[in-house]
Amino acid sequence: MRVLFVYKYLTLGGVEAVLRARLDGLEASGIEAHAWFFHEYGGRSIFRGREDRLHVGPVEECLRWARRERFDLLSSIDSEEVLPGFAGTPGGPRLIMECHSTYLANIEYLRGLAAYRPAAVFSPSEGHAKLVRERVGEGIPVRVVPNPLREEFVTEPPPFPAPPPRPVVAWIGRLDDHKNWRGFVEIIGLLGRRGVEHEAWIIGKAVEADGPEQLLKAAREAQVLRRLRWLGALPYGRIPVFLEPWPAAAPWPRRTRLPSPSSSSPAGPAPSSPPAPPNPPPTASRS
């Protein structure tokens, strides 16, 4: 089987991380998978070592290539630009639409999806699938397909050479109001006022020109400047190593991660942090 995944933008983002994990996992299962993006914005490093499966070009070229190369499935992630290519055109790959966005204005295209006869619509969680079903109506199967993790995120990374001296509460994601980074800053303020010993780390770039000033203002108002660190640019490949300090910094032997919000995970604005109970069961969640 051959599968072509399609997405608008090649960035250092959540969808790209999901697609890289799929390329690796599907190949191990004997399925040839490729990823096609319409526009490139600096995300090629996520696909290092899989460059032969990475393609960038306009939607018309993507559709022609999918037919010429006889792909069995074309799975489009919130990229409705492909839909006209499936309007009454015989042959070619079957269409799967994947809806990952939690921006409601961006998923209104689902209301007209029936005309293009997709085989199914995929959603990453049960809660998000409810939003999808409200828009696609009857007749189109909606399947929950959780986002995968790459192997390096669930195996023990190499030891971190300089673990922080205090427990770390970390938030990973763009400084986008939709992801509620301000809520995280408020939580850090509450922890400080309650005397909880910790360091607060924010890992993610600003999306607006005055983003750094907004973060500084919010941190000053919450009185968290003394314990807050902002890492505005952390290479994607360094995230597993970044997560390693927590066992040494926290008073329990294994790290535990809570889900972080992302464009393709509708779980909400939860920080990635060690919880209070001792010796919690180890878990992992994509950020």
CATH topology of the largest domain: Rossmann fold
Major β-sheet, in short? 7 strands, parallel
| Domains, number | 2
Strand order of the largest sheet: 3-2-1-4-5-6-7
> What coarse outline follows from CA principal-axis ratios?
globular
CATH class of the largest domain: Alpha Beta
Account of the protein in words:
By secondary structure, this protein is of the alpha/beta class. The chain folds into 2 domains: 2-148, Glycogen Phosphorylase B (Rossmann fold), CATH 3.40.50.2000; 156-249, Glycogen Phosphorylase B (Rossmann fold, 3-Layer(aba) Sandwich), CATH 3.40.50. The protein has 7 helices and 10 strands. It is globular. It starts with a strand and ends in a 38-residue tail after the last helix. The relative contact order is 0.13.
Give a short overview.
This protein has 287 residues and is of the alpha/beta class. The protein has 7 helices and 10 strands. The protein has helices at residues 14-28, 59-68, 126-136, 181-193, 211-222, 239-242, 246-249, and strands at residues 2-10, 32-40, 54-56, 73-77, 94-98, 120-123, 142-144, 168-172, 199-203, 228-231.
